[in-house]
Amino acid sequence: MTGHARAMLRDRDGHHARVTFEELFFDLVYVFAVTQLSHTLLHHLSLVGALETLILWFAVWLGWQYTCWVTNWFDPEHPRLRSFLFVLMLLALVMAAAIPDAFGDKGLVFAGCFVAIQLGRTLFVLSQLDRAAPLTANYRRIAAWFILSGCFWIAGALAGHELRLALWAIAILIEYVAPMTGFAFPGLGRSRTSEWTIEGGHLAERCQLFVIVALGETLLATGATLARGEAWSTPLLSALGATFLGTLALWWLYFGTSSKDATAKITTSDDPGRIGAWFNYVHAILVAGIIVCAVGNDLAMEHPDGHASLPQVLVIAAGPVLYLAGSAIYRRVVYGRIPASHLAGIAAALALAPIGLNANLLVMGWCTTLLLAAVAIWESRTRRTAPA
Fold it and tell me: How many CB atoms lie within 10 A of CB 165?
């Protein structure tokens, strides 16, 4: 490995690698991205709108999590990497700004920025490594996969709406499946997760901080809607209570019951790369649930007395279902079991759909809040074994 590449590597002294201010600054762009995603879904409450938002969310998450792995291996405080992180921030900011019209006139802007982030980051890392470095072979494979997926991203941006949806779905599938195969690519071999020598505590903390980013966005949206209200009526204040307590329940289900054990799990694992890969997939579902819950919060805050339509009922129920499903898998990774509390919560959330068609949005908001709070209390009182 060259001297300048070696200087960029994080120190592996056996202690938990701290999250740097550069990484926290980088995450601020994703507050905006999460806001854009929730507003896009809010204004496109349909099956097609949900699929579009899901694809855009998966792209946003991919851009963040691959950068997270780079800053796990390399020191973000090194001037070269710090400068490149700021370039990625600018690209992510433009990409996030294009989200509302990504399936319209700004498709090429969104796709171009995303490909530049994914492929540009990979080529930058390769430029800092010599041919014999342990990470070089893996980043060559990653570059090959990103070139392949990039073709689908750009082709989709140049295609019509329906074809764009299909091509971008293929691109997303390519980038999510690649790590499952060890980035296996013809002529380039494959890697094993045991070769991904990550610092587990740092990766766990980065995922936890993104959950904070997503929860913070839901609170910002709630506060902004309250500020816009000309008269703070009783229904509006009741909706405020429901959305705040619901967000608190989401926080407690993650940070109050499992996040410390998750950190211990990955830190002490013989194969932290495998656990880290699971964390990335699981958090994609968890944060998607938070985003959808934020849309339900917006509906309850803006129209507390409004009768819930079928799309609104479905999105309000889908938020807890997604979040609890992600949380259940998270606990399966950490404790080796799927908790009964989460399965019961998912069943209850699904049962809310027919009830919601005969209720207003405020009632639906309180139902989901009480459901999440019940699961949080149940899980808090469940005796948990040490991480499996």
Answer: 16
